[in-house]
Give the backbone structure.
Amino acid sequence: MIELQHVTFVHQNGVRALDDVSVRIESGETVAIVGENGAGKTTLVKHVTGLLKPASGTVLVDGKSTTEMTTAQLSRKVGVAFQNPDHQLFSESVDEEMSFALRNFGFSPEVVEQRVTWGLETFGLEEYRKSSPLVLSGGEKKRLTLACILAWDPEVVILDEPTVGQDSIQKEKLAQTIGMLGAAGKTVVVVSHDIEFLWPMQPRVIVMKAGKVVGDGPAPIVMQQKELLDSARVAEPQLVALYQALATRPDSPFADALDARRWVEGRRAAG
Amino acid sequence: MMWVSGGFIFRKGTSVYHRLDPRVKLLNSALMFATVLLVRSVYELVGVMVFMVAIAVVAQVLRRVGRTMAFTGAFSAVIFVLNLVFTGSIATSLLYAVRFIAIVISTSLFFITTSPDELEQVMKTFRLPRDVVFAFVTAVRFIPVMLLDTIQIMDAQKSRGLELEKGNILRRVRNMIPILIPLVVNSVVRSGELAEAMESRAYGAVPHPTSLVEYRASAMDKVTALLAVVLFAAAAYSFYFIFPAKFP
């Protein structure tokens, strides 16, 4: 469980990146954090990983304050894949890159080998096992960083802009992986501008603006609040826009179209 | 790290000193630098440092200069100890240690009050080759970017269980590898991308491109430059003829 209690954080240049933020994320929840650039999304995430400590307020991970732990200690529980994969890749080969964190955490060589193989196979990187991670394409690097995090099986997985540079198939695979993590009881936090990617997962959505949480709730509810989304410069999902255009009449056949899968199944059942 | 860098990197300011012609600021710093080299006793050096602190107050950068002093303090302590070991004289060791801090302040006063664009213009007035000027100014401009990169890389590696503050000195040095490799690779990639972007925007198409900025010294600039030269001459004269302090 992650809990931020009245957290405020001010950068050295005086910018209030987080302003009295209080959020509670239960274990096993899938949460999307959205908002314009500079809204404080990444700053919030960095507080959960212990990279930043609050100027005031408390950040608790499993009931323990992040000020009592180093980032390295916290990272065993909280794995974060940052936006830019070039900021972490340094090893001579892809498998060494994947084993870096595992060795830091003291896993045995057998377990390291087993998890590296799992990660490479899951993310379609097996053929690059002995290649330098620096020569991979942008999308492959992104997948590698994600594989690196999932390899040590953290309880909380935070993905910062995971879809940048990914083609539609990889996005689909990524969505499946997130679904799989959710099903496995992991807490997943996705920071993204890619609303169309987030929407099918139907996560809990936290909307941020100017360092404050201005919206919080299930995707079907939050994503229909056009004024809120506009003020936070978040685009509404196309399906929501279509639904709102078509389902205004109570007898509209699209009244339940917000859940696309259920709607299609309903039409099929109706013949 | 950003705290330390604040003592060296330019930030916009509105003080009288910021508004001076960059050539005058360079002259001031060069003369302060020379004065620091001329002093022969700790007392004289303290006098010069008080003068530099006064300039920092006028330029409204005292706090940032304080950071520079705090950062160089560590190196200065090493200089003091080494000198003490080899010369055995506390006065000489103190002079060299404080002189190092004073030299850094004299140069940092120029860099923290002069933008990379102004720096470029200053270098052009010395008729340095355009490529050299561009390379130097770009390097200066990219220092904050690289600092930010370093912080982000450190964040990413710490999130993978890397403990930078743990272990003996050898282990700590080894722990820097995951930081330095991405930093160097990113810098090389970025410089390649920058070169391509510059070429695609006609860099080098003509030998003498036009300039948007032409500096003309104002009355304030001229008075400041004159004052700087007079003060330097007076200081040099007093060091050698009025108070001929025994070295050190």
Summary: Chain A touches chain B at residues 12, 46, 49, 51, 70-72, 75-76, 78-80, 82, 84, 86-90, 100-101, 104-105, 134, 148-149, 152 (CB under 8 Å). Chain A has eleven helices and ten strands.
